[in-house]
Amino acid sequence: PAAIQLDSLTKRYGDTVALDDVTLDIAPGERTVLLGLSGSGKSTLLRHLNGLEQPDSGSVSVLGAPVATARGRELRQLRSRVGFIFQQFELVGPRTALENVLTGALSELRGPRLGLLAYPKALRVRAAELLAEVGLEERAFQRADTLSGGQQQRVAIARALMQQPEILLADEPVASLDPESSQQIMALIRELAERRGLAVVCSLHQVELALGWGSRVVGLRAGKVVLDAPAHSLDESA
Ligand code: ADP
Ligand code: ADP
């Protein structure tokens, strides 16, 4: 079955049509770039995939389950299978890197501050392993707001992987980073996703980053899909 299935998804905000009749199937393990200018609907699309937005019409199904009607426990369960990475990282600044990663086990970004020992040992071990995997083991006990942007995004990526999701969503994950960190973070996302066989959907506005990274490129303009092609087919003509 598809990892993600959108069928005639339409979403309006007042007079703005943010998504206009979007139909899209994404297979497990596929690495998809959502490419479009600011305001083209990328965030809105991603936010429908973990129930942060409700469609006006059409349907959204993730890992075989309809998202729009999911509530409470069902929605938390769905979100635990879908990791999300944000442009502004969305870490809790005064907490350590390790605490922020552990928060990923709670299905909420800003849950109560729990002492490290409130987490079962297996979770503490997994969080430490994930921090090592993103190259930050020496920073585990450093406050998140003292880390560089690239390091903060690494923490956020580790947090998104805490519940061992099957899908990873990234909303402009490098838009706040310098070019070198951007390359590093995109490479890291790709490597972690490949290692785990995750489907990734990543929104970007830079064509150069998109073509080298995705296996598939979906272009959005004013809420419509205006391009859907294998990345390699675009690289030649670029
Ligand atoms: P992005 O381009 O990454 O979506 P924005 O600055 O456009 O960033 O949006 C930031 C947040 O504000 C998002 O959560 C988005 O849903 C919301 N947003 C965007 N446009 C509007 C708007 N016109 N009115 C209210 N909220 C908006
Ligand atoms: P992108 O992520 O590609 O920058 P968005 O999905 O954030 O685009 O926005 C698509 C359109 O919907 C834009 O015109 C934006 O201003 C509008 N929009 C997004 N979120 C909101 C919101 N919460 N309220 C009003 N308008 C919004």
Feature tags:
alpha/beta, 8 helices, six-stranded mixed β-sheet, 238 residues, binds adenosine-5'-diphosphate, four-stranded antiparallel β-sheet, globular
Could you walk me through the main structural features you see in this protein, from its secondary elements to its overall organization?
With 238 residues, the protein is an alpha/beta fold. The protein contains eight helices and ten strands. It has helices at 42-48, 72-80, 97-103, 121-133, 149-160, 179-196, 207-213, 231-237, and strands at residues 4-13, 16-26, 31-35, 57-62, 65-66, 82-85, 167-171, 199-204, 216-221, 224-230. The strands form two sheets. The protein has a six-stranded mixed sheet with strand order 6-7-8-3-9-10, with helices on both faces. A four-stranded antiparallel sheet has the order 2-1-4-5, with helices on one face. A hairpin with a 2-residue loop joins strand 9 (216-221) and strand 10. The longest helix is centred in the C-terminal third of the chain and has 18 residues, at 179-196. The radius of gyration is 17 Å and the shape is globular. The structure holds adenosine-5'-diphosphate (2 copies). One adenosine-5'-diphosphate is lined by residues 38, 43, 87, 172.
